[in-house]
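Re: the request from the purification team.
They wanted to know what the chain is likely to look like in 3D before they choose a buffer screen. I agreed to run a prediction and write the result into the notebook, where they can find it.
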Amino acid sequence: VQLVESGGGLVQAGGSLKLSCVFSGGTFSSYRLGWFRQAPGKEREFVASARNTGPISYADSVKGRFTISRDNAKNTASLQMNSLKPEDTAVYYCAAAFIGEYDYWGQGTQVTVSP
């Protein structure tokens, strides 16, 4: 399984970005897809996750601002980020889990939110 993220960049506070994660090398619908982020000097943290069916989960810090979605026809997961804050600045990673822990990770995409 390979995951490739895109869509990061520099945005002002209050702005929006949409991250995309293209999945290949497996059956997309069989995997739980998640987004994580890691800010400088901090540990990696969970942002959001979605199974093919079932509940979607969000970190409290992004609820109401971020939306995770998946397009099984395009083998793509997306993270729409609105009302961005400087504290959202981080490298964002896409990850895939077949059962249990996340087994596969993308290379990450940088998101920088200026005040």
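For the purification team: The mean pLDDT is 96.
Please add any questions underneath this entry.
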